[in-house]
Amino acid sequence: MFKYPNGRAYEKKENERTWHTRASDTYGNRGMTLEADLNETNAYYLAQGIAVIHKKPTPVQIVRVDYPKRSAAVIKEAYFKQPSTTDYNGVYRGKYVDFEAKETRNRTSFPLQNFHEHQIEHMKQVLAHGAICFVILRFTTLDETYLFDAHHLLEYWERKQQGGRKSITKAEVERHGHLIPLGYHPRIDYIQIVDKLYF
């Protein structure tokens, strides 16, 4: 069981990433999660000398560990030390890059509840310093992945805060986002979109 710093237990939301492979998955997505695809892509970028982008580790405080055998340890209770910011950061062509990755099974919109207030605040701060900041959104049932600039995300977040829609429609994602074709190496070549948008 994981707990937040305030002691509240972590509960997995229905639309949060899942870590399983389904036998019915097509070759197109091969049952991989967005995170696995991005980690594979970033490893490719690093090996090819293209960019240095890493997943940020989530700081966890381990509280209770059981040792059923001398050679094995099982974590029974742990706490998130602090709220996380975004999933990935690094450097590309001399610029700081910071982005979040989210998935949804929804076909018609992307729920803004997938984002947390502290992540939005972090993105605002990153943008204020002139860095490259975006989100990578995946519609898992449609097998579509988009790069969506953080400026647009903040506009839709503000709309929600003012009592508007609590999601970004698929049409809005298509209008302001950039579809990233899935490949083999790299799996999600988001750098080609970054080149067009920011350089």
Automatic annotation (TrEMBL):
Keywords recorded for this protein, A-Z: Cytoplasm, DNA damage, DNA recombination, DNA repair, Endonuclease, Hydrolase, Magnesium, Metal-binding, Nuclease
- Molecular functions per Gene Ontology: crossover junction DNA endonuclease activity; magnesium ion binding; nucleic acid binding
Q: Where in the cell is it found?
A: Cytoplasm
Superkingdom per UniProt: Bacteria
Q: How is the cofactor bound?
A: Binds 1 Mg(2+) ion per subunit.
Record's Gene Ontology CC terms? cytoplasm
Residues with site note (Transition state stabilizer)? K102
Gene3D superfamilies given in the database record: 3.40.1350.10
Q: Which GO terms describe its biological process?
A: chromosome segregation; DNA recombination; DNA repair
Q: What cofactor is needed?
A: Mg(2+)
Q: List residues binding Mg(2+).
A: T85, D87, E100, Q119
Q: Which reaction does it catalyse?
A: Endonucleolytic cleavage at a junction such as a reciprocal single-stranded crossover between two homologous DNA duplexes (Holliday junction)
InterPro entries (UniProt xref): Resolv_RecU, Restrct_endonuc-II-like, tRNA_endonuc-like_dom_sf
Q: Which purpose does this protein serve, as stated in its record?
A: Endonuclease that resolves Holliday junction intermediates in genetic recombination. Cleaves mobile four-strand junctions by introducing symmetrical nicks in paired strands. Promotes annealing of linear ssDNA with homologous dsDNA. Required for DNA repair, homologous recombination and chromosome segregation.
Its family remark reads:
Belongs to the RecU family.
Instruction: Please identify the protein, giving its name as recorded.
Output: Holliday junction resolvase RecU
Q: Which gene encodes it?
A: recU
